[in-house]
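Why does residue order matter? Because the sequence determines the fold. Keep that principle in mind as you read this record.
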Amino acid sequence: MKDMSRHLALMLLALVIAGIWGYFSDLRNGQIEWFVLRLALCAGIVLIWSIMNRQKA
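Structure:
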């Protein structure tokens, strides 16, 4: 359970960072699809990285 909360915390952090980044680069230009894609991609990459990093330990 502790691992899941760690993964969730990292994903939330990635979503916040990607949301801020996406707001300035995508939403201001009306590119909603790119904004959603950026959110999903950043969260997915962080989740995979976190799981792989945990399996090494």
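The CA atoms of residues 3 and 54 lie 8 Å apart.
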